[in-house]
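Quick one: structure tokens for this chain, please?
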Amino acid sequence: MTRYVDTNILVRLMTNDVPALAQEAMGQVQKSRPGELIIIDAVLVELFFVLEFNKRYQFSRDKIAVIFNGILSIPQFKLSDTAKAAYSLFMGALELS
């Protein structure tokens, strides 16, 4: 079964800002099959925006890239084709402010 990932799930996993929710999110990921959790472009753009510009996080683009690459190494996650294009643009513009 294909399921689409919400931005909040990824924020919890990438920041662990609310440990109980991060643990719950990881539990859901672990129950999923490889490639079952789809990340679409809108979620990816929102995720990067929140992590970079929200006063609570203010992650550098380099930090976002490192942490998100860790997320991508989890076999349950898969980027949609349009998210792959968005991710490629983000990675190519790490030095932009």
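The chain has a mean pLDDT of 94.
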